[in-house]
Amino acid sequence: MKGAVAWTAGQPLPHGRGSEGGRGSVRRYRKKLMSISRRAFIQTVAAAPLAKLIDAQEEPKKDHVGYCIVGLGRISMGHFMPGCLDSKKSRVVALVSGHRDKAEKEAAKYKVPSGSLYSYDDFDKIADNKEIDAVYIALPNSMHAEYSIRAAKAGKHILCEKPMATSVADAQAMVNAARAAKTKLLIAYRCQYEAVNLEAIQIIKEGRLGTVQAIESANGFVERAGEWRLNKKLAGGGPLMDMGIYSLNACRYLTQEEPRYIEGFCSVIDHDGRFDEVEENVSFMIRFPSGIVASCNTTYGAQMDGYVRVHGSKGTLQLQPAFSYEGIKLTTHIQGEADTEKADKLNDPAQFTTMADYFSDCIINDQEPKTNGEEGLRDMKYIAEIYKSCGRQTF
Ligand code: NAD
Fold first, then answer.
1. Could you tell me if the CB of 188 is within 6 A of ligand 1?
2. What is the model's pLDDT at position 60?
3. Is 162 a catalytic residue?
4. Does the beta carbon of 71 sit less than 6 angstroms from any atom of ligand 1?
5. With CB atoms 3.0 to 4.6 Å apart as the test, which of 173, 211, 266, 351 could cross-link to 390 if both were Cys?
């Protein structure tokens, strides 16, 4: 360095007291040295890489994600939140509820401080809570869009229950909001993270079924009067939005193709008031680009143990139950292979732990989730097409 004097801290000064130069020259030397050292110090700091200096001030990378639970109902309290208890990466850190007493009870179980309990009205205050990294939205379907968009505006990542929304426009607005806020959005298609479903995908991918020709699937249950799922404004539609979406999504992930034609039929058989606003039954057919045809049924009028059967030129694969919280079972009958039967051994809420931890990893490592907003949006577009072909409309 031009003009710098070679000296390091701790070393004696050259020309100390009693040396040849005398007291005056020592003082002059000290002054020069101090001014040069200060200049040298400033130059050294200026030359240090800026990133390193900023790094030193950055908070250490978090090893977990704090979730704010929006809506304390069956899926959140019975499955997702217990799933977080089994996790080191995903923690319940805040709650949003319209019922303070219920929120306080849950808060005690999950050690959520009272300052992290919110009502729907003061939801936007989550922006100021540093413990909250993400929200888990478990509200009636038509409320998903509003709370996802508000969460994105608060700078929080979003894990939103299926169906993503009740219209294509709302789903698109959610994707746009997350993109604008640079927050991540995952739609809770838990079967796409479940080991037995993943194995079925792999068997088909490897061609062990030969050429896949056809798929059959069904998923439904008997819905009782008074549920929000029968209210079009809250649910957006009937069993297709709630249960048929599992079959639709499975046909897509098993074939790894996007539907070319899709058509449905709706009906109401039980005219007892339950189906004044939403359909009771929907059957839909999908034709994929390869020629694979899928036929699916969904209902709120009968118990349908969710299943999928895939028929290929060399054999058949069956998932039954295919979409349950535990005990998912895969059987194969393939030419030249011994028949197999395999069941998921993990108990509920393991699927929720797996999905939450997957999303937490995406957030911690800044990766785009597999079942992101675009994946949910695709299903919303197919659902809209099915309803259109039935002569019904989404919002
Ligand atoms: P739920 O009725 O048990 O819970 C809904 C929650 O929303 C309740 O806490 C309720 O108080 C709150 N809420 C706020 N405003 C409301 C309003 N205006 N009307 C009714 N409730 C209101 O419902 P759920 O079965 O937990 O379903 C919630 C969401 O989770 C739905 O979108 C559903 O499709 C989805 N779900 C997903 C799975 C899955 O396996 N991924 C399973 C069940 C439900």
1. yes
2. 72
3. yes
4. yes
5. 266
